[in-house]
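User: Sequence in, structure out. Go.
Assistant: Echoing your sequence, followed by the structure tokens.
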Amino acid sequence: MSDSKPHIAQKGPYQVEVEAGKTYHWCACGHSQKQPFCDGSHKGGPFTPMAYTADVTGTKWFCGCKQSGTKPMCDGTHKKL
């Protein structure tokens, strides 16, 4: 996992129901088996998870391609891959 670019977990976002005030740790490396969240697979590599605290309860779309310009949320970048 010494690549400078993260692994594309999926070419599309993950739809997740989040709870206001709860912190989620988004997988930045793309190797987690618990996508879109971190399971520690990044250890020893150049990536670290990104903390996201939900401001409201509801549906959020987390980036699956790991290339978004609005990480950890999807911005449609996967459509260009």
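User: And one key feature?
Assistant: The first strand starts at residue 14 and ends at 18.
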